[in-house]
Amino acid sequence: MKGEKEDIMVKIFYDKDADLNVLKNKTIAVIGYGSQGAGQAQNLHDSGLDVIVGVRKGGESWAQAKTDGLSVATMADAAKKADIIQMLVPDEIQGAIYSAEIAPNMGKGKTLCFSHGFNIHYNQIVPPKDVDVIMVAPKGPGFLVRRTYTEGIGVPALLAIYQDASGKAWNTGMAYAKGIGATRAGVLETTFKEETETDLFGEQVDLCGGCTSMIKASFETLVEAGYQPEVAYFETLHELKLIVDLIHEGGLSKMWYYVSNTAEYGGLTVGPKIINEQSRQAMKEALRRIQSGEFAREFVLEGRTNRPVLSALERQENEHQIEKVGKELRAMMPWLKKD
Predict the structure, then answer these.
(1) Segment 72-121, tens digit of pLDDT
(2) How far is residue 166's CA from residue 122's CA, in Å, rounded to a whole number?
(3) Cα separation of 292 and 290, whole Å?
(4) Phi and psi angles of residue 50, each rounded to the nearest 5 degrees, phi first
């Protein structure tokens, strides 16, 4: 209707939109060999591309990458040899590694690549103007990027161009996405700003922070009311996977369809009272801190001071009653013990 905002259909790019030949005769350095680094490097290698892994010499990652059949070098040497440099070390140390190992080996015509926009968006890395800067961000952990590639499926990815010095950055990004298998599932265009801010927001407010805090609070409420911790564990944590799987497969509507009428009525009437206006204000405050750079400054400082806050919070999380009870109950479920 005229005067109303029209829905904009997002364009999704697939295999046919990408040319792997763009990366032929190019060397790709994958800096870091954690979950994401290992998954992407192996996929690129299996796609027939020239890959070299850049890691600390003599470490476990060095040995593992060699075992996986990949060429390995120090980060500096890998960057020196590469045409495309993919930064896949943790966000909090990425800036320091870039300054010490990568920046001296950047040169005109190279491409600097990321899978998360944090360090570019918050100016922890400021690349030279004569290089392309792109982001190919798979929407799944590295082990899933690897597994789905071997299954012929792939995971979706986001593609962003921050700097297009060559005029060919988009083609490079699409080819890279194809090399890791993402174009099989679909690639969406975004920006470094949008990816960074929405990714941090999702992690803090919903997927990691909000969800785990809700689980602990509901568990504590039942235990404090006198219910058995084991029963509380099942009702507040264990069964969450059943619900999330339904949502993942078919959205909220599929979940509501398959749960009982009691669960649907209770959930739809009580849920908004739990996630209420106060909760929404907290979400908006979290987003404000992300957008302003306040969270980034806090996190970068945390990384530079040997993670004191994060280490303390990890200890508290591991000592929570729900973790102790859960460990005992999961030991009774051998079907959970799989890679």
Answers:
(1) 999 999 999 999 999 999 999 999 999 999 999 999 999 999 999 999 99
(2) 24
(3) 6
(4) -85, 110
Instruction: Give the Å distances, CA to CA, from 128 to 102, 125, 168.
Output: 12, 10, 17
Tell me phi and psi for residue 114, to 5 degrees.
-135, 165
Question: Each residue of 247-280: pLDDT tens digit?
Answer: 999 999 999 999 999 999 999 999 999 999 999 9
DSSP structure class, residue 1: -
Q: Is 116 a catalytic residue?
A: yes
- Tell which residue, 134, 126, 119, has the closest CA to residue 168: 134
Check: CB of residue 77 under 8 Å from CB of residue 54: yes
**Would you say the C-alpha torsion 133, 135, 141, 142 has a positive or negative sign?**
negative
This prediction's pTM: 0.91
Task: Name the catalytic one among 116, 121, 248, 320.
Answer: 116
Q: How far apart are CA 251 and CA 245, in angstroms?
A: 9
Tokens 């919903």 label which residue?
206
